[in-house]
Amino acid sequence: MGRRLQLVCVQGGLLGQRFDVQDVELVLGRGESCNVRIPDTGVSREHARIFVHNGAVWVRDAGSRNGVVVNGKKIQRPATIGPGDTLSVGEANTFQLEWRSDEPERPAAAGPTPATSAASAASASPAAPAAPAAGPRWPLIAGVGALVLVAGALALWVAGS
User: Which of 8, 19, 64, 156 is the most exposed place for a label (fewest CB within 10 A)?
Assistant: First the structure.
């Protein structure tokens, strides 16, 4: 099972809703044709566009009246965003880009009965910290690909000299 990027509303009228960031462009705005319809008069009919290009996730202001803010800074041109970055549109709508696992969540195990909980709590050892999640590999792959292209171009240039 894999992971996928999702745009998650962390503040505003769509709080808690998730939108997959795939090869399809996401259009944020108030308009009927938008993939992500935001009920806020401070949001333009077509406010922002989120798309994947060359393995990176980009956000672009679609000519909105109030602009697009990425990580607290208003953007003037398309900007890349990654997991953990925030995107704000309108007066109070904030989204965050997150990794989401395709694996189904496992049901929680039944806890101890009240009679045994005090005794087991006294003898229980502290839980080990969780291992950090592996980060995305696409930046590494893109970097290696760029190095291969540069090395090939340099070899051709030297051979032609």
Answer: 156
CA 29 – CA 32 distance, rounded (Å): 9
Cβ atoms of 64 and 43 within 8 Å: the answer is yes
Contacts of residue 141, defined as CB under 8 A and 6 or more positions apart, other chains included, come to 55
Burial of 36 from C-beta contacts in 10 A (0-12 / 13-18 / 19+) = buried
**pLDDT tens profile 41-63:** 999 999 999 999 988 999 999 99
Q: Are 38 and 12 in contact (CB under 8 A)?
A: yes
Pairing of the two strands 26-29 and 56-61: unpaired
What pLDDT sits at residue 109? Answer: 55
Contacts of 96 (CB under 8 A, 6+ apart): 7, 8, 10, 84, 85, 86, 87
- Contact (Cβ atoms closer than 8 angstroms) between residue 50 and residue 25: yes
Query: Residue 156 carries which side chain, given as an amino acid letter?
Result: L
Q: How far apart are the first and last CA of the chain?
A: 50
User: What is the C-alpha separation between 110 and 91, in angstroms, rounded?
Assistant: 43
